[in-house]
């Protein structure tokens, strides 16, 4: 092969290679995303005002206070938000953090795709003079190996998370793991199997439960969104929307507002 031919092959391979991972200024932005070993500023980070999250006042107060302590370099918990889908778990993580920032706290969110990325982030953030929340949305494990590894990161392992970092994890499962009845039945001591499954959830100092909405709760969320965004919402229309969607939740209420605004030719501007 000629030198020119080899150079063309090398150039072609360079074009096929993925671009270098992005690196953002960790002091400059309210939120980031971690992907492929690089960190980038989150675009259009605009969480809902925390007051718009209706029916979860206890959860709001607890999480805002926890993030406020963390931003002030005080003792704060890792947080598990568990419960019904569409009930506001993910929205609350972001809205509570944004509220603390509005109150003057310097704290940033980092959206993390998988728990496998945590050691690299711990190494990157550990010596940085800022407080961070690592957000793992909809986390769940089908087996116990990954859960045991995450447990060691949260508490007592060689690569335990640094003091300026806290985790916020959302899950539809209260204990992050499915209850394996067969495993429990075959265990020499069934209680040991249960304890092993529950041990990960126990590592979170603050666990907030979210439950399915009744009709009044769903309509209250619709009304709050409608008033905030100046959208005409009809009670019967909103209920029919929920029936067609097969559930009542904050997510379904928001989807109804989007649909009602679209039918009226409106854009959803924040007020």
TrEMBL record:
Gene3D superfamilies named in the record: P-loop containing nucleotide triphosphate hydrolases (3.40.50.300)
Taxonomic superkingdom: Bacteria
Pfam family, one: DUF815
SUPFAM superfamilies reported in the protein's UniProt record: P-loop containing nucleoside triphosphate hydrolases
Protein name as catalogued: DUF815 domain-containing protein
Organism the protein comes from: Sphingomonas oligophenolica
